[in-house]
Amino acid sequence: MIPTTWFTVTYRLQGTAEEARARADELRYEQTVEFPMDLTPEAIRETSVGRVVDTAPDPAGGQRVTIAYAPETAGNELTQFLNVVFGNTSIKPGVRVERFDLTPAMLAHYRGPRYGRAGLRAVLAAPTRPLLCTALKPMGLSARELAQHAYQFALGGIDIIKDDHGLADQSFSPFSERVRACVAAVQEANARTGYRSLYMPNVTASHGQVVERAHLAKAYGAGGVLISPGLSGFDTARHLADDDQLALPIMSHPALLGSFTAAPDNGFSHFALYGQLNRLAGIDAVVFPSWGGRFSFTRAECESIARGSIEPMGALAPIFPTPGGGMKRERVEEMLGAYGKDVIFLIGGDLHRPGPDLADNSRRFRDLVETYA
Amino acid sequence: MIPTTWFTVTYRLQGTAEEARARADELRYEQTVEFPMDLTPEAIRETSVGRVVDTAPDPAGGQRVTIAYAPETAGNELTQFLNVVFGNTSIKPGVRVERFDLTPAMLAHYRGPRYGRAGLRAVLAAPTRPLLCTALKPMGLSARELAQHAYQFALGGIDIIKDDHGLADQSFSPFSERVRACVAAVQEANARTGYRSLYMPNVTASHGQVVERAHLAKAYGAGGVLISPGLSGFDTARHLADDDQLALPIMSHPALLGSFTAAPDNGFSHFALYGQLNRLAGIDAVVFPSWGGRFSFTRAECESIARGSIEPMGALAPIFPTPGGGMKRERVEEMLGAYGKDVIFLIGGDLHRPGPDLADNSRRFRDLVETYA
Predict the structure, then answer these.
(1) Do A34 and B166 touch (CB under 8 A)?
(2) Region B49-65: what's the mean pLDDT?
(3) ipTM of predicted complex
(4) A92, B205: Cβ pair inside 8 Å?
(5) Closest CA to B97 of B107, B87, B112
(6) Chain B: residue nearest A86 by CA?
(7) Per-residue pLDDT at B367
(8) Residue B129 has what pLDDT?
(9) Which of A51, A269, A282, B21 is the most exposed place for a label (fewest CB within 10 A)?
(10) DSSP string, A120-151
(11) Contact yes or no for B47 and A140 at CB 8 A
């Protein structure tokens, strides 16, 4: 009997059904007590060791094994939850996390996205159409030059103008100077257009600097923040999302997360990593490289992220898939077919491609998405 | 000409020399400006885009490509350094980080390990012999029961008694209660034995809790702390290491880091991840699963970690390889052959195997390593 209060993690294990059953037996110990089975006291086995719920062949190969864990093992902290889900087992080949399912009682400990799809749409006054996002780049430009770009993008109607994830606090464009300049530029453009474009600076930083930069950004009038959970840790993102004094939309970037999906038989599924986990961490819009660009995610993997961004997770709001990584104008139609209209198109280099008039280049994207309102 | 102030990262790329050259050209843009080559202004190319230093066939297959980056791109933050090293490229198959080489000027921004090998040996009054470590487990025991174990381990002469990495702040053994009980137990044993055993609680926690728990541990008299950088982010470990008010030895655990070495052609080499990066983050002793246990690292991979823990890195102190993951008494001789005496043997379940007298089981390990003084 598995208590109904336990949460489950579904793994894909390589090997035959018999091998998978043996490995699942190791796994449920490895992820909890990390202690030899025969030496674990009966009482601890009852309270703390995971239990195999189900084993079935996976159409993608190997076996799909669901293990239930006592909520006490994860202790209501995202760091320890991740540790129970995959801590030690990440070091073993042939095991991938496909999905996790928390109970309502556990989900109640996670606030989740503060804005989500509906909240971000309300802020942007864009109730139905696809949204547009771009990144300020290239790295090496001054704060002033980046602000000039930001002005042009906002003038052309890009909804979210974020820092490129590589802009931190470098000498060529110090954080404070950049944020002030870009906020002013976007506000000025908004005053002209009547749009509500948001500027989201990158607050991925040293442990002691993240919260400080986010609050500085808020004080300067930024409309949201960008963070890379792979660099900062997922709980740092959650910390920002739960900060009632900050209360800004949060976008995540996949930097350094790639290795979690690089091996087909290790790491996390795209669904679990970019969908479920980002949402649990309170991210409002999750950036990932769409199929057909410079990266190698497949269409099916991208669609699974979109599913993970909306599928029922207690009271946690659905979030915006934000496909990027080589996004082009001529792909909008195809991508809408996969993601639907609840999507943020992240267009980087291609907004510079048609010529130096960034406002005009942006306007043409804006006109395009407005036809899908 | 590549400026001497630039740092280098050596990658292993899959494919032929010609393919590797083309990919290296993409990589140096992807990791810096993330902008189309033809649209990148000449001045930015000069200041901010990485440059290929060298390409050569790798004996392990593929090509070894060294790319130099301007120090300004990494901006003296560990998060942004990691982003330049592997942020976006982590999402591309067929690229692995083999090693990185910082310039003396950059290394000067990293304090590195506060104790390192020499410091930890001084604290433990163990100038030459291999050191011993164990983990308090299984999860599910009460603080009082774990403290009883800690007492026995210390009585038997285990140098470092750490929390199992899955002990956080769960209801069965709350952090504060556990740390007080275990510190008292180890101090009592030390008073009897004259040894200097250290208790290191796990401070991996929510973003806002890590520093608080570490300082609480210090206030209670803990002799060091354990952190899992894969869960908390590497810079959180560095933050603790650099904290002059804390000033405790830091041990790292590999939880969730496994996916970075799971694919042979993605992620990081064991040398770079467990050796170089842990050291740059200020870790004094790095736990990893040794070959021949429950995990799958090879002997060569483990030896490369040991090399990474000592090879010249500016003024950064050498650190202790801490092999675990199924360590047994009968393997000590073989492991000394690989690691030398500058090693911490992490023995978990096997300290419980011979019988319920944990002090006696520990004493036999201690007697064994003392023969290698």
Answers:
(1) yes
(2) 95
(3) 0.97
(4) no
(5) B87
(6) B256
(7) 96
(8) 98
(9) B21
(10) HHHHHT-SSSPEEEEEE--BTB-HHHHHHHHH
(11) yes
Residue from B5, B14, B79, B171 whose CB has the most chain A CBs within 10 Å, to mutate: B79
Q: For chain A, which residues make up each domain, given as ranges?
A: 7-107, 116-370
Quote the percentage of chain A above a pLDDT of 90: 95
Residue B351 Cα, gap to closest chain A Cα (Å): 11
**Hey, are the CB atoms on B48 and A204 less than 8 Å from each other?**
no
- Give the DSSP letter of residue A325: S
pLDDT tens, position by position, A204-224: 999 999 999 999 999 999 999
One-character DSSP codes across B313-328: BTBPPP-EEEEESS--
Contact by Cβ (8 Å): B58, B64? yes
Of the candidates B36, B39, B266, which has its C-beta nearest A262's C-beta?
Answer: B266
Burial class (CB in 10 A: 0-12, 13-18, 19+), A245: exposed
Phi, psi of B122 (to 5 degrees): -65, -45
Q: Scan for tokens 């190319």, then name that residue.
A: B45
How many angstroms separate the CA of residue B373 from the nearest CA in chain A?
Answer: 30
- Verify whether the Cβ–Cβ distance A83 to B228 is below 8 Å: yes
Inter-residue contact B165 to B203 (CB < 8 Å): no
Looking at domain B7-107, its CATH architecture is 2-Layer Sandwich (3.30)
The whole-chain average pLDDT of chain A stands at 96
Q: Which residues of B touch A204 (CB under 8 A)?
A: 79-80, 83
* B7-107 and B116-370, same CATH topology: no
A5 interfacial to chain B (CB closer than 8 Å)? no
Q: Please say whether the structural domain A116-370 has been given the CATH code 3.40.190.10.
A: no
Report whether pLDDT(B60) > 90: no
Question: What DSSP element (H or E) covers A337?
Answer: helix A332-339
What is the mean pLDDT of the segment spanning B13-20? Answer: 94
